[in-house]
Amino acid sequence: MRSIWKGSIAFGLVNVPVKVYSATETHDIRFHQVHAKDGGRIKYDRVCSECGKSVQFADIDKAYDSPDGDRVVLTDEDFDKLPAAEKHEIPVLEFVPTDQIDPILYDKSYFLEPDSTSPKAYVLLRQTLLETERTALVHFTLRQKTRLAALRVRDETLVIQTLLWPDEVRAAEFPSLDDAPEARPQEVKMATSLVESMSSDFDPTEFTDDYQIELRKLLDDTIANGGEKVIHTEEETSDDGEDAEVVDLVAALQRSVEAAGRNAKSSSTESSGKSAAKKPPAKKAAAKKTPAKKAPAKKTAAKKTAAKKSSGGTSETRKGA
C-alpha cells in the first residue's frame, strides 16, 4: 500500500504521528473506450464552449450555476479563504459510544499506521479506545476538504471512517407503506422458521464475485488465444519521508491533566459570585485568568485550544506529507 496522507492525531496535548492509507480497493476490471474500426484509444479534449479552443487543466476554474441562471466563478484563492481544519492534523473533538453512530453515516475507510520511531502514543490511543468502548469523533482534511470522521480500532489498527453529514442521508418516505397491512402471526412464525433454518455466522470469505471471476477468465482466454494487445502502465513510486520525534507521553499526559484542572478551577471561580471581582486585587487576578475562563464556554472550543497548545506543550514534532 502507498501512503496518501501524513500528519498527526491531536489527542489532548499528545500528538500521535500517523500515515494514512486507503483501507479498501475495488477489484472491478476497468475498461477504456476504443475505436471499433481500428482499436485506437478514444481521448477527450477540454474545449471551451465560448472560444472553441483547447484549455489546459491549469487554466480551469470552478463555477456554480444558480437556479436563477447566475454563474459564479471561483478560483483557488477563493477556496483557500474557506474554513478548514489544519491540513496535517486530525483533532479529536469528543468520544462517543460506538453504538450511537448509525452505520448509514459511514463513508470511506482509511488505515492509520504509526509514523514515529516509537509507536507508544499510537498504542496508548488504541488501548484507550478499546477499554472505554468509545469512538473518537475527529476532523479529517483530505484533498482540501474537511470531513467529520470516526476514529476506531479494527484488528489492532486505528481506522478512520469519514462520516456523511445528516443532510446527506435521504429521508425514506414511501406513501405505499402508510397503509400497508400488518403481517399475520402465522406468517411471522413461518418467516421466523425460515430465517432460523438459513442462519449462520457471517464469513465474508464464503462469498465470491462470480461476475468478475468469469470476466477475468474471458479476458485471459482471449489473450491466450491471441486477442487484443495489452498495454502495461508503470506504477508510481512512494516517498515515505522521515520519522517523527519520540513523544514524552508521561509529560504530555500530565500537561493535559493540569490543563483540564485549570479549566475546572476557573469554571468554579466564575460561578462563586461577582462580589470578590469588585476588589482591586481580584480584578487583576481575574484579568490574568480571562483566557482560562473562556475555555469552558464551548466544549469544541476548549478542545481546539488544547489542540493548538499541543504544538508547544509536547515534545512530539508534527510531520506532514
List its salient traits:
321 residues, alpha+beta, 7-stranded mixed barrel, two-stranded antiparallel ribbon, 21% strand, extended, disordered C terminus
- Taking all Cα atoms into account, the compactness measure Rg is 28 Å
* Count of extended strands: 9
Largest sheet: 7 strands, mixed, barrel
Structural class: alpha+beta
Q: Helix count?
A: 8
Tell me what portion of residues adopts beta-strand conformation: 15-25%
**What is the average per-residue confidence, as pLDDT, rounded to a whole number?**
77
Spans of at least 5 consecutive residues with low confidence:
235-247, 273-321
Q: What is the straight-line distance between the termini?
A: 15 Å
Share of helical residues: 25-40%
What spatial form do the alpha-carbon principal axes imply? extended
The ordered H/E elements are EEEEHEEHEEEHHHHHH
Q: What topology, given as strand order, has the largest sheet? A: 1-2-6-9-8-7-5
Helices, strands, pairings?
Layout: E1 5-11, E2 14-22, E3 62-65, E4 71-74, H1 76-80, E5 89-97, E6 106-114, H2 120-132, E7 134-142, E8 145-154, E9 157-163, H3 185-197, H4 210-224, H5 249-271, H6 280-288, H7 290-294, H8 299-313
